[in-house]
Design brief:
Length: 88
Amino acid sequence: MKLYPFFFLILVSLIVISCNSDEGGDVQLPDDDTSSFYAFEIGNTWNYQYYSRYRPDEDFIPMDYFEENKIVGDTVINGETFSNYALR
């Protein structure tokens, strides 16, 4: 019976020790410039191919249907720039 307080003290000590702050240094956050993350430059394209399957337990079968999205321009609305794209 007298061992329960001892184990409780060890458990609390381990919890307190494991919750100390990280000494890894400063974390560098990425820039807020999302234009480098998304490739929304005029002239960029994305090509898609469609797939189908008849039952959920079967593999996907590629279809002969393709789409191309292309960034054709941009528009500024209330100070924010939005990309215009065309579907081919």
